[in-house]
Amino acid sequence: MSFWRTARMLVKAIQVEGASREKKIRRLYELFDYNLLNKTNSYVNLGYWESGCTDLDEAAQALADLLADEAGFKPGDRVLDVGFGYGDAALHWLTSRNLGEIAGINITPLHVRAATERARRLGLADRTDFREGSATELPFESGSFDRVVALESAHHFLTRVDFFREAYRVLRPGGVLATAEILPTHPDAVRRSAVARGVPPENCYPAEEYARKLTATGYTDVSVRSIREHVYEPWRRYLARRLEEPDARAQMGMFHKQFRDRVGTPGLDSPLAREIARADYVIAVAGKPPS
């Protein structure tokens, strides 16, 4: 399936009248083919573009590693990954951080099947538990995880604050919640937006309010910091380069110029450049007080 046909199906899927918001988000992630952007993995994030990152595969892995560092992963930890995509980060963390177990929750059946099958192939099935379900009604016992993480997914949750409460419930005393996510600061920023598509108005507020909501939920040692300069513009520059590669041009066909004009070129203004200028990107870390 061509990139542009997939994109058109995406738009149609999320505009279906009468469909629940959850169903629209599920369709959003079931239909999109990330192979155009990623070459060696299936991460569904914009990446953390450290010095030396040359493509989205490296940057997406770097963002996963940054979130693990911020969450303070330790050998033997039991971790819950909320909105785990195809399982790239969860399985990477499980082995690279020597976790005891990683569980995951996702509303997209395709992702659950893909992550479960990958864990089986890698011989990690006995240390993983991927389930279909909602981030705001986590199907796990209270006080059962050392860390809860959401890698570029919590902006979709209706609402993010309800997720904060559920994460607090399933964390053990002294546990940590850590998120990395797109943060539109005003509902106007999500209208006609590709980057912030699927973000409910209730989740649009600045980083300071994000921190206040975590504190009001009961978390302590709250930190919410912007990393937008290491995410949005480097990602856009990568897209501009990627769109000029022969396979990308071939997949887009006659629509290549239209998409390229939206993305723009490094150093020049474009619709996408103006769009990302209106959104923050944050790493948030908060602790559940020890009992």
TrEMBL record:
Keyword Transferase attributed: yes
One family name in Pfam for this protein: Methyltransf_11
Taxonomy of the source species: Bacteria, Bacillati, Actinomycetota, Actinomycetes, Pseudonocardiales
Record InterPro entries: Erg6_SMT_methyltransf, Methyltransf_11, SAM-dependent_MTases_sf
GO MF annotation terms: methyltransferase activity
UniProt KW keywords: Methyltransferase, Transferase
GO BP: any one term: methylation
Methyltransferase type domain ranges (all copies): 80-178
Designated name of the protein: Class I SAM-dependent methyltransferase
Domain of life: Bacteria
